[in-house]
Amino acid sequence: MEEQNNKNLILAMVLSAAVMITWFVLFPPPEPPLTPTAPATEVAQGTTTAPVADPAAGTTQAVAPVPQAPRLTIDTPKLAGSISLLGGRIDDLSLKGYRETLEPGSETVRLLSPVGENLAYYSVFGWLPGTGLEAADVPGAMTEWTASGGNLAPGQPVTLTWTSPKGLTFTREIAVDEDYLFTVTDRVRNGSASDVSLQPYGIIARHGLPQLQNIFVVHEGAIQRADGELTETDYADLTEFAVDPNEGQPAQVTEAMTDGWVGFTDHYWMTTLVPEQGKPYKQVLKYVPNAGIYQAEVRPPAISLAAGAETTSTIQLFAGAKEWATIRAYEIEGGIAGFLDSIDWGWFYFLTKPIFAVLHWLNAVIGNMGLAIIALTFFLKFLVLPLAYKSYVSMARMKELQPEMEALKERAGDDRQKLQREMMQLYKDKKVNPAAGCLPILIQIPIFFALYKVIFVTIELRHAPFFGWLNDLSAPDSSSLYNFFGLLPWDAPATGSLLHLIFIGVLPILLGITMWLQQKLNPAPSDPVQQQIFAWMPWVFMFMLGGFASGLVVYWITNNTITFIQQYLIMWSHGKRPDIFGNIREARAAKAAAKASPQADQNKGKK
Description:
By secondary structure, this protein is an alpha+beta fold.
């Protein structure tokens, strides 16, 4: 029995170490701010790269610094910004429905910014010259278009035109819907006397490395889908796709035959190029080291155009928030295959997707995300109730058997084999499975991680209020014991700081209490060392989970409360009225008896 107890102690220590390691992986110490890959002077000069040669030759050429050009205003229910007539760039975009912080007067989130500003981020479209054409014969990143019509709004597209020296007429229509999708339709009419060939392209360019979350549960970097296969590439890995300025050969080219999209994803925002689905095209990811530019490209097939003929190419651009309902509509109604996978659902996607779908529906019905999380917890507990019931019954019977097990230990003395035989016979006679108590934990672990992923990744939880001071369920509880929850006249430590983790808030304290109450209904380990370890676990977890998103802590408190009520009722139904504080009284009595025993007096005399 002593050997088994040692094994259990080692197992408990290993599990505790695993929890601590997981904690530091999920919440690593803050790192110094990341500096942009491109020096500020290069960004200010506006150097960028755009394909200006036949992609078959694998060449690119850096264009000149971007000068000022006229702009067209973008005004939709969700977007505000402008389009530069230089290259027809979509390079100025803010999200009306989202602000940087919860502070009053906080600025709206700016997604795209033009060259010349820090960390420029934009999309540009153009044509690659082929047979019978030179770079000056096609519009590119430096072409200044002529606009007709007013500003860009839903149902009010803008039209840009440009005529090349060789007589080719290019027309670009840019349309936008009420959400985040731009549709860029390029038409070209060959007014020259000879046949030509050319190839359309779309580019998303990002100057320098953006500020990153640096937490493994969310992917930040390039994201692409080609013929049903999803690929995520970090910015560090993108630098391996460096382009030699003299050769310009893209290091990563993906041939897609039917469907797909490519772009960049942040924690909550995304820019993605979507070519015409059902047609072959190329995806290109590359990094331009001399300018510090990360670039994603879409290149539909080259087009041969006879004299007097006309052709059309369409590329869509998604630029906005990763809202589940919006992206789902683009996938189902808009025909963008697999677009919902642009949200990072993680390894447990088979759980995170349905869990969030239910959570989104509950939030729409209830109107409060915190209450929706509580309702979701009840729903999940109901689903696993049949399995949990058997486990709780087993634990209740184990607790009932503790007096008999203590009697067995006294009878067996130091005969370990006899004790093990009689304990196994007791379990068999009473039809108790000691391992069944682990079943709820095994069920809860994947659900816990899936819900953590949902709360941390999905934008619907960002700045979602609950009640009172809980105004952001994606952030830790902002209350603190440091100022006695706001009653003392000094500010609480900043969320995420070491002091905030020590001086925890209301939700972590409630979590520790509910874990402690739940633990009191479970049979106590026979080994004293294990008893001490388990006695401290609720309070250790109280501090560990105090830095988690408050929405997740709300789930865990609700889950513990429901579990406690279920176990209590099951034990009551088996004729045993649970005494929550009985273990404490028994432990105090045992401790007092040990101190008063002759052996204790003898040991005291030896000391």
